[in-house]
């Protein structure tokens, strides 16, 4: 059942991301690179599922990009890129599934954006595609990092939370003092962690119940 949920969720997210990227993001005519929503999906899922699943999801997502119109490159090129990225990002998954700040996930997004751009350009150079050289590799790197960093806070935490909930991961319901990798983006800079906020709400609810009980006892004594 867990494997089925993983396949279903990954397939749905990849297809939705591909449709949004091809029909919306690619048509924005932004300077430099195109915001890579599929890359962020692969990064988020690899951080939850690990390197093996990350590589498989990356390969499938990249293959869809290679086959989807208006593809102008050799089939398998982006599949190789996302497969490698998914594998490497999956290796960065912490053993306990927890990170205490957004620095780690943000650094992973930057590394994935830079690595995917360089790897895509390198594979293109091997097969005789020098489009990146004409556009400007430095410009592509800078814009890819900027666009992906702008999208990451709105996509990566949500995707990771969905992935954990679909697998009934205990960390999805954790109320500890540390934050998990899915909430790292949201916890950074707020001064309060998700678990701490829940703990405060529970303490307030307990105090309210105690206050109501005291009022009821006072009425009975009268």
Automatic annotation (TrEMBL):
<feature type="transmembrane region" description="Helical">
    <location>
        <begin position="135"/>
        <end position="163"/>
    </location>
</feature>
<feature type="transmembrane region" description="Helical">
    <location>
        <begin position="104"/>
        <end position="123"/>
    </location>
</feature>
<dbReference type="InterPro" id="IPR007227">
    <property type="entry name" value="Cell_shape_determining_MreD"/>
</dbReference>
<comment type="similarity">
    <text>Belongs to the MreD family.</text>
</comment>
<keyword id="KW-0472">Membrane</keyword>
<keyword id="KW-0812">Transmembrane</keyword>
<keyword id="KW-1003">Cell membrane</keyword>
<feature type="transmembrane region" description="Helical">
    <location>
        <begin position="37"/>
        <end position="63"/>
    </location>
</feature>
<protein>
    <submittedName>
        <fullName>Rod shape-determining protein MreD</fullName>
    </submittedName>
</protein>
<feature type="transmembrane region" description="Helical">
    <location>
        <begin position="6"/>
        <end position="25"/>
    </location>
</feature>
<dbReference type="Pfam" id="PF04093">
    <property type="entry name" value="MreD"/>
</dbReference>
<keyword id="KW-1133">Transmembrane helix</keyword>
<feature type="transmembrane region" description="Helical">
    <location>
        <begin position="75"/>
        <end position="92"/>
    </location>
</feature>
<keyword id="KW-0133">Cell shape</keyword>
